[in-house]
Amino acid sequence: MAHRWARPVWHSSLESTNTELLSNPVAGAVVVTDHQRGGYGRHGRDWEMSPGQTLAVSCATPAPASHLWGWVPLVTGMAVVRSLRESNYPIVATLKWPNDVLVPDGAGANPRNTGKIAGILAQVVPETADRGPLVVIGTGLNINQSFAELPVETSTSWRVARGGEKLPATLAQDWLTAYLQELDRGLTQPEHDPAGVALDYASMCHIGSGCACAPAWRGRGDRDGYRY
Q: What value, to the nearest 5°, has the Cα angle with vertex 83 and ends 79 and 86?
């Protein structure tokens, strides 16, 4: 396990992994479930997850300097993409601004015909007398839904992206380990090489998504307090 993170705590079911972790935020904590009943994304949008066929993971990390907060959801998306591309069951994952993760729908599909496989929500936790500010990073991943089981037409799953054959049950744990390692590494990069991270991000963007990441560290603040 990456050095930043404690051993993940698995739950059979949760309303929301972010809500669970926000109730007792501790740096390094990781909360996981394969049945999230009331997940939510940016701007309060629902994130529907099928029991036993998806994975929701939230982790808490010390917040970087405030001018770097906007990088957190971006490098998280990059960590998801890398961990999907480099899996033993690899898929061609891309990013849609700012941090939706897309993949082609089914084997041999046109790369422009994409579906959303993962969503990300980063929430800043204010500092207290006992600790500095934290960021809780939530990620929801569709893994083993068949095409008929997908919640909306614009979504896809790892299984569908691989052609429809059911994937092994061990894949969720393997992906989680890889994702946390990639995230640990990615969270350290914006402070030292923001231009390099911006180029890496742009290289992962889905054609036509309109992403323009190069000025991310000096852009405008959005309604969640991040800077893009």
A: 135
Are 151 and 94 in contact, with CB atoms under 8 Å apart?
no
For residue 197, count other CB atoms closer than 10 A to its CB: 21
Name which of 50, 75, 58, 86 is nearest 160 in CA terms: 50
In the DSSP assignment, the letter for residue 172 is H
- 196 φ/ψ sector (left φ>0, alpha ψ -120 to 50, else beta): alpha
pLDDT band at 206 (very low <50, low <70, confident <90, very high): confident
Q: DSSP letter at 68?
A: G
Residue type, 112: R
Q: CA–CA distance from 194 to each of 98, 183, 226 (Å)?
A: 16, 15, 16
Write down the pTM of the prediction: 0.85
Residue 1 pLDDT grade (very low, low, confident, very high; cuts 50, 70, 90): low
Q: Which of 120, 113, 121 is nearest to 154 (CA)?
A: 113
Alpha-carbon dihedral of residues 196, 201, 204, 210, nearest 10 degrees?
A: -130
Amino acid (one-letter) located at 38: G
